[in-house]
Amino acid sequence: MIKKFVPYLKEFKKQVLLMPVFMLLEVAGEMILPLLIAGIIDKGINGGGGLPVIMPYSIGMIVLAFVSLGCGILSSKNSAVATQGFGRNLRKALFEKVQTFSFNDNDRFSSASLITRLTNDVRTIQGMVGMAVRMVLRTPVQMIASLVICLTMNAKLTIILGVALPIMALFVVKIMKKAHALFKAQQTAIDGLNNAVQENLIAIRVVKAFVREDYERGKFKKANDDLRDASMNAAFHIMKVFPVMTLILQAATIAVYYWGAFDIRDGAMLTGELTAYVGYISRVLMSVFMVSQSLNQVTRAAACATRIIEVLDSDPDIKDGTATELPEAKGRIEFKNVSFKYRTGTGDAVLHDVSLTIEPGEFVAFMGGTGTGKSTLVNLIPRFYDVNDGQILIDGMDVRDYPIEELRSRIGMVLQKNVLFSGTIRENILWGKPDATEEELRQAARDAQAEEFILATPDGYDTFLEQGGVNVSGGQKQRLCIARAMLRHPSILILDDSTSPVDTMTEAAIRESFHKNLKDTTVVIIAQRISSVETADKIVIVDDDHIAAVGTHEELLKTSPIYQEIYQSQQEGGAMPNG
Ligand SMILES: Nc1ncnc2c1ncn2[C@@H]1O[C@H](COP(=O)(O)OP(=O)(O)OP(=O)(O)O)[C@@H](O)[C@H]1O
Ligand SMILES: [Mg+2]
Probe ligand 1: pick from 342, 354, 366, 378, max atoms within 8 Å of CB? Predict the structure, then answer.
């Protein structure tokens, strides 16, 4: 698992090497300090050396303290550079991976979970990288060095440590074992809170429309309280360590002083030495706690690492085609015995053995009840998903053979659930073709019947759209999306239910500009109104998982019961669709 993360740390080799060096120097400084104190007591005070002896020791202590501090700062600095850089690299890699995700991958990882992985999980691992160096180097070094010094100073007294250490270790292990579960519960509670907030913010308009603020408030309160309880449980539990640790530490100190006093009486040890000895013994005992804490951190980070690796290792299921000789872009689409089912769905085929040919320049309309698979059908054309069986050909070549960029550049698409981005209207339309001229831009806006309302906005094309395009109406948003797709001059233009929120007059005008300005473009629309499809070269009726009928308006009126039914219902009930 660790191997997976090494590449993101590679560019910080220097820091990774320097950090432990400075840290060891810092520890060394700290380890020598008690010895100097012992010198002051034994040689300066008790030995009667007085100030001349105490002075050099004191100066030594000050110098040592500063050196230790300096090394500590340098070690922290190197550590910060390495861990922050590591986090940055990891986030970059994750983000780039997510960009390669197919719709299938996006169905699999929810966006809430991806956000947590990219932020919270990375931060936890980052913390662990810093901590790991501490655990692997500092704590054990400090512990072993202290132990060795204790043994050389007074082997007999070290027996006390032999008793205190196992008791301490046993106790800490017991506490930490339970703490792991509590920390995990805390992490889950954080996820819960994130989910509650995110869902609320994404759907804030719906929440307000249904006046569900109270319910949402309750939901948030619960998640928030859960987090507080879980965090408190974990914190209280961990805090139990401190009194017990202090108790053991004090008991060990008393024991050392008690038996040490005999050694001092017998002249086997000096007072200052005993003081230093107590310092070292408490360091050994503290290390046990530090190690356990680090281990705890590592287990927490391991959970996050698994989640991150899951993303990094996911193999995007849509891969670039390798064809180098591409057919001329004409706009011919052919479905050959296509079957498809969603991986995350119920397991039922959404499309079963669908065959259909659309000729270049044709205007083809799909109709059918909701959930019959119309969107699914058109989403297969730019390979948002891949077919399970059969083949889709564009201009005679399988879509899976096209380099994806080339394939998608031939297709202009207005999705059923479309979005605009924060930025000006101009920037949003230019998404379709970043290098378009002003005239091309305006032509696309005119063709999509969008220019009139754009010019009516305060800043025209430079009017700023908020995130998600919330400050334009549904119909205006769709028209901007259509302009964005038309600007590409694609050989195939697909509009998934894009004109439903647009009034019939405007829709007719859009259709008219298709006829006039996109004569050679194959236009595929999904629509609900008979008026939208009447003039189509072909109307395709989708039912359940198959194509029930194909024909012109006149033909279908004679032959297709479904089409007749739709027609009847819209004749009687006015122009409103009922799906
Ligand atoms: N991302 C998805 N994951 C799993 N199942 C899906 C997904 N998208 C759609 N489905 C399912 O596939 C079926 C067809 O959906 P699709 O969106 O193609 O219908 P549609 O004909 O476009 O409907 P509408 O007219 O309401 O837009 C539905 O039963 C739907 O529940
Ligand atoms: Mg749909």
Answer: 342
